[in-house]
Amino acid sequence: MGSAGTLGLLMALAAALSPESQPSEGSGTVQPLQSSAQGQWYTDLPQNLRLEDGKLVLQAVYDPAARAIRDQPYTSARVRTFGKYAVAPSQAHPTIKVEARIKVPAGLGLWPAFWMLPADNATAACSGCGRHGVWAASGEIDILEAANDATKALGTLHYGGPWPLNSYTSNNYSLPGGASLAGDFHTFGLEWDAKQMRWYVDGQLFATQYSGNGTRSGWFSLGADATSLEAQPLLSDAPFSQRFYIILNLSLGGEATEFTKINGVGIAPAQLNATLATPQAMLVDWVRVWGYSP
Ligand SMILES: *[C@@H]1O[C@H](CO)[C@@H](O)[C@H](O)[C@H]1NC(C)=O
Ligand SMILES: *[C@@H]1O[C@H](CO)[C@@H](O)[C@H](O)[C@H]1NC(C)=O
Ligand SMILES: *[C@@H]1O[C@H](CO)[C@@H](O)[C@H](O)[C@H]1NC(C)=O
Ligand SMILES: *[C@@H]1O[C@H](CO)[C@@H](O)[C@H](O)[C@H]1NC(C)=O
Ligand SMILES: *[C@@H]1O[C@H](CO)[C@@H](O)[C@H](O)[C@H]1NC(C)=O
Fold it and tell me: What region holds the GH16 domain (predicted)?
């Protein structure tokens, strides 16, 4: 910790998490697994989303009935604190920590995530919109993503210009011996202050990223109106100078899903269907946000 101070619990999030049961793509349009995109349809049915033994269960299920609804043969779940809770470093709490204790699943095509999107200016139609425009000019913070066998926990920032002028920087962490993270619960955490973010697994620091202070030498935003990669970054700590809300989701990769590709090759529906035995669950013990007082 750079800035010493007293640590206080700002929020324990169980009550602030709401299910999202829209189609799975950010645009709101449905892209069936057959055509490439993610392979799930999110629901809030108990088969996909429930509390069990004190844990939040997000579960991917092979569900032929789901195909009849939206041509997606799998259902899963996504929850978020949108409209209920959002946070950023502040004068009262210059450093905050967002963490969750999670047991991720492992299996070809699985893509569990614990992440954040900007809260201001987000709408149902534009969940990545923030004060600096559409994704990724307003930023995305990925505290944890794991793919397939879950041998790596990825921590990533997306920022820069409006898509396709977006940039990102990613780091990853492996358990000793390269064991799968799926074997047990682990605590995934992010410490965030105006100039710096730090990623942790079980208290082990594995990545640090910095504000570019209005240059490209760290995170930056080109703002809502940028039309070229050469645009001048905003002279601030944007896009991570605004409030973000928290999301937990369990997705399935498709043929065009970069994240679950193996050696550059996406996961075809038949392959997913042949390999992935469902149900597969992402278990969340708790989500907490802490603030350090100066
Ligand atoms: C699930 O989370 C990851 C987080 O990085 C996100 O990129 C992905 O689009 C999400 N999938 C869906 C369908 O919400
Ligand atoms: C954000 O919302 C405010 C108020 O609705 C609006 O004035 C502003 O233009 C929006 N900014 C962006 C980048 O969409
Ligand atoms: C993990 O980090 C290493 C070292 O930076 C990098 O070479 C590798 O591509 C990363 N893996 C993933 C899946 O991002
Ligand atoms: C941004 O500013 C902070 C604090 O003034 C400084 O510590 C950091 O090195 C700067 N980062 C860059 C990339 O210049
Ligand atoms: C997928 O797997 C299930 C269960 O093994 C099977 O019933 C179904 O026919 C398979 N094929 C497709 C295309 O969903």
Answer: 24-294
